[in-house]
Amino acid sequence: MVNILELYARLILLVLLGFFLARKLPPIFTTRLAQFLFWVGIPITIVSFLRQTDLSGPIWIAPAIAHTATLLGICFAWLLIQGQSFWTNAKPPKKTRGSILLASMVGNTGAIGYPVILTLLGTQYFAWALFYDLLGSLFATFGSGVILATHFGHNSQTKPRFWQTFLINPPLWGFGFGLLFQQVPLPQVIDLSLKGLAWTSLSLSLVLIGMRLSHINYWQNLRWAGISVGIKMLLVPLILSTVLPFLGLTTNTIEVIVLQMAMPPAFSTLVIAENFNLDKDLSVTALALGTLIFLFTLPVWLWLF
Description:
By secondary structure, the chain is an all-alpha fold. The chain is built from 13 helices and no strands.
């Protein structure tokens, strides 16, 4: 309970701080903070926490489940779209269908997932969250997500930029360096500095979320956004969580995976929607709605598992 209260205090205060800072600071500040975290902060966080992480056990199950959750989210969203078409003889516009699928498939397993797992379960199980995010969500976003966006959108010329973002990806490189230097001894001062920078970066990530949410001034397609969030944050985790105990996983590792599956839609879905001319309004609404709902669904998942 103490950890949950600490987590809620940190999440709410830091997100609110970012929300109000964005109202006072020029928009370029948000952009610069995002660039710093992407190129410096998050890679350092990954390297630092990997040095404290236990990599034993079948952690490769985590990205496999992440891809399974992605496919399930896409399938359920597609079935609902087809169901509406059958009963009403009407489909959402093509670009809206693309945003519905995106919001149903990938979650914010980094900026929100990392601090949640570290606060509630500590560094011992961080590798499971990390593998789920970098080898699961990242590949799903810039793999399946881009393929879907190319099909449903109208700006396929940006596809090479996304593949470049995927290949030249500092968090992924940080993951590689973290694995390489995990057992390399470092002076205590450097080790402590890395830990301090890591926790600072996680805090700044939550501030950045608040800054981005502050720019949301409209709520459109609330019905479809709610359906996408329900699939992503409730239906898929509930179904797959019934299978996890049969994989020989411990209670804590199951909890990590379920929490990562239950994260709100990723901000990268909005980036894809903007670049491929999908329904940006629906993507924005799904992000805001999912982030708010997460405050209520988190204790439910913790209670269940």
